[in-house]
Amino acid sequence: MRELFRKRRMWRSRPDLKKRYDVVIIGGGSHGLATAYYLRQLGITDVAVLEKGYIGSGAAGRNTTILRSNYKTPEGARFYDASVKLYERLGKEMEFNLLFSQCGHLTLAHTDRALFVMANRAEVNRLQGIDSRLIGPDEVKELAPTMYVGEDTTYPIMGALYHPPGGIIRHDAVVWGLARGADAGGAEIHPYTEVTGLQRSGDRITAVQTTRGTIQAGTVLNCTAGWSSLICDMADVPLPITTHILQACVTEPVKPFLDVVIVSSQMHVYLSQSDRGEFVMGSEIEPWTTYRTSGTLNFLQDLTRHTLELFPQLEQARILRSWAGLCDLSPDYSPILGQTEVENFHVSAGWGTYGFKAAPIVGKTLAELVASGRTPDLIAPFTLERFYEDNLVSELAAAAVSH
Q1: Which of the residues in the chain have pLDDT under 50?
Q2: For the whole model, what pTM was predicted?
């Protein structure tokens, strides 16, 4: 029985920390684990992943599982398209079912101005080879026949940006699969190991201080989402980031009647139906900065009101639970990714509400950076230096609702 239990473990139980690792990754969510997973493919296995809670306890376990690549900027669209393509084969590669459903993604337009913005995004997407197009109300009705598209509403549906490769995935499965893959490659995963300080000497981080002792490090990566600015402060690397909460909720399971992701920027609501029949729903980030992940009644009131305008048949559905996660927002709504002024200290930060979508490509590109010392072309536009050089990559138009 003991042998059978060992075989079923997702990853090994944590060993004692060694005195030194070639690579120390701070953050045991999807980005940190993906980096460890792809480092393995490049032959770098002396890796420690440090997580202050349980694995996947942060943003990786508190999102709404939507994947897409229909972004506004060419840089963003290319980047997220590469991530979706990695997701498409990741389950088979890891031999782990991620429950990925590319059911399609609809961003609704309720005004002439919104239609113009959607048309612009569709053209940017097509120029990057991404399947994305503007459709009218009739085709919206065909794709989501149970959604109310009548004209006698507060927000009539005038069209939508249709993105067929978009969809939903099981976030827990992504975390478990990446952790299992990283562990199989030799990486050590250390939950309940909080980083309390970074020792810096000149242009290098020499050691990472934790609640379980101090360890020497060849390279250090900060993959901590909402906590990224606090970790960077330990390295004396300031980030232009503010932290907000993003709330979401889920209903009881109901008979399946929606097989496409629905997003409304004007109504600030997005929703999808899971494979178990639950409706997973979210809205905009809260405007205040905080690290408290407490939900609010205002969120539930506004979200359910707008949801019922689209799907009045959900009126009697009960909400099972709600939650909140931390989002670190950069000034241009694009990530901060790659090298910093500290030679061996790299970051994956500033993701706002987009981080989970990017997990595979973040892991792959950061692993390439660590292995080669060169910034991959795909992430070059997202370096921290852009805020000093005025080379912003504004994704604000693609962030009108936080999903």
Answers
A1: 1-6
A2: 0.94
